[in-house]
Input
Amino acid sequence: MTRLHIHSAYYLVILHSFRNSCVGFELLRLWPLIF
Output
């Protein structure tokens, strides 16, 4: 559960940081490769 919470936090930070950028979609597409 802790790991899931950490990943959720990272996801929220990344999503907020690149909310108006195509980079956000690239990170979402590469997410399974990173983790």
